[in-house]
Amino acid sequence: MASERADDPREGAHPARILVVEDEPLIAMMLTDMLEELGFTIAASFAHVAPALEYLAQSDVDVALLDVNLGNEKIDPIADFLAERGCPFIFTTGYGRTGIPASHAGRAVLQKPFQISNLETTLREELNLSGEL
């Protein structure tokens, strides 16, 4: 589908690096496939908060997709960390805005299940990209 790459205007022409935090393996695989089809690079994928935070302490990403429900863990520490860095992120959830941390209520939300076109549109908005992939 996508022959061009999703360029990040902050860094010049390179595929935007995306962090995926999703605890359901099938959804994480689906997200990875969709993102690769759209020309993005998966920086890393985690199912739990602690390893994601350890990764972020040492690495930069261009945007993150954060599952609101990670079992009994709250996504808040990752959202707070990214917000402090000024890094865009998008919540993914099957429950609408329910469970979105109050301090991040204005952030973008992708309602599961979503189509690749919804993912593309939301990522483009968060990364301030224009045009089609």
TrEMBL record:
GO terms (BP aspect): phosphorelay signal transduction system
Pfam families the UniProt entry points to: Response_reg
Claim: Phosphoprotein is one of the keywords in the record: yes
Residue numbers of 4-aspartylphosphate PTMs: 67
Keywords, sorted A to Z: Phosphoprotein
InterPro entries, per the entry: Bact_response_regulator, CheY-like_superfamily, Sig_transdc_resp-reg_receiver
PROSITE patterns named among the record's database cross-references: RESPONSE_REGULATORY (PS50110)
Stretches of the chain forming a coiled coil according to its record: none
Keyword Phosphoprotein set for record: yes
Response regulatory domain residues: 17-127
SUPFAM superfamilies recorded: CheY-like (SSF52172)
Protein name: Response regulator receiver domain-containing protein
Annotated source species: Methylovirgula ligni
